[in-house]
Amino acid sequence: QLQLVESGGGSVQAGGSLRLSCAASGRTFSSYIMGWFRQAPGKEREFVAAISRSAPSTHYGDSVKGRLTISRDNAKNSLYLQMNSLKPEDTAVYYCAAKGGGWIQSIVIESSFYNYWGQGTQVTVSS
Description:
mainly beta, seven-stranded mixed sheet
């Protein structure tokens, strides 16, 4: 089992920044493709970003491109999401997730392909 624990969520005004972290334990973190998803009240879970095992490849959802940056530090078993220029529509619970297998953009955006999930961290952006 791979355990994932998110942190760094909170409340911020529009235009502000937050940095989410996801700490992994239990298995070899570097073996997994990692992703961030989010879910707002009453909405389906939405793909935010994904990063390949050794981080040469990243992919972002259209709504966050240019504002959010995914990164990882395999030596620290950690995943990050730097969130800048936040908007009220970014308000959601943010989840980190891990999947095995290859890097295929049409697959890394699908939550059903991820095997392990964290408990989520709340991000609230006020206008």
